[in-house]
């Protein structure tokens, strides 16, 4: 069990470092006025319009870095720090979340795959840790509970890796559009790209942490079978 705690602590520290850097970058780029003078809401609405998307609403939600696209009710949810903000950071976030709306409208394969996994994942995450814990205690008796727990954890790890191309592609679409549309200057584009890079790194760290934990559980299972 000490191994899993060590892995958890290492990736928790890495995650905290990346998260702190992300918040620092967004704070810095939020203080840079956008030369075009457009707000996050206006940018989002423009991007949706340019992609022929008319059934998605742009709404404001409370919190900081709470921005997301909800495919269930087709809403681009922008935090209060992005919705009316007119900065390089707001442009990056608004366009990125609309990138997910474009993926949805275009039936982007990785987004479809990730969405299809959600029902099974919600069930897996509810029982997974308990099954793994029971499996560890019963290792000397039977490997079946641990094997089931590892399989469920493998599903969550797969989900975290499927998320990576979804996030990278949304950022790619966002950066290409704000450039093509003249939303940002060259300097502002560099800021938007850097902000989205740090946001993407949070998903990378989460995926690698999940993989490391999965491999640890697999090693326990293989050790039991040996």
UniProtKB/TrEMBL annotation:
Pfam families: Zn_peptidase_2. InterPro entries: Zn_peptidase_2. Keywords: Membrane, Transmembrane, Transmembrane helix. The chain crosses the membrane at residues 6-22, 116-138, 144-164, 198-218. This is Zinc metallopeptidase. It comes from Pontibacter rugosus. The lineage of its organism: Bacteria, Pseudomonadati, Bacteroidota, Cytophagia, Cytophagales.
């Amino acid at each position: 069990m000490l191994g899993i705690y060590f892995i958890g602590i290492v990736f928790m520290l890495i995650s905290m470092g990346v998260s702190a850097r992300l918040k620092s970058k967004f704070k810095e780029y939020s203080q840079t006025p956008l030369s075009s003078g457009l707000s996050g809401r206006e940018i989002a609405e423009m991007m949706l319009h340019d992609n022929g998307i008319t059934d998605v609403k742009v709404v404001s939600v409370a919190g900081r870095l709470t921005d997301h696209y909800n495919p269930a009710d087709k809403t681009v949810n922008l935090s209060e720090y992005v919705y009316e903000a007119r900065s390089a950071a707001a442009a990056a976030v608004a366009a990125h979340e609309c990138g997910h709306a474009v993926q949805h409208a275009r039936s982007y394969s990785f987004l479809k795959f990730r969405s299809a996994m959600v029902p099974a994942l919600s069930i897996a995450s509810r029982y997974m840790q308990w099954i793994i814990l029971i499996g560890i205690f019963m290792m000397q008796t039977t490997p079946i509970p641990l094997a089931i727990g590892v399989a469920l954890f493998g599903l969550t790890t797969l989900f975290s890796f499927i998320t990576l191309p979804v996030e990278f592609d949304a950022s790619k679409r966002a950066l290409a559009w704000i450039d093509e549309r003249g939303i940002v200057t060259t300097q502002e584009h560099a800021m938007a790209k850097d902000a989205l890079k740090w946001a993407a790194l949070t998903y990378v760290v989460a995926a690698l942490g999940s993989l490391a934990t999965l491999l640890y559980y697999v090693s326990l299972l293989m050790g039991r079978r040996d």
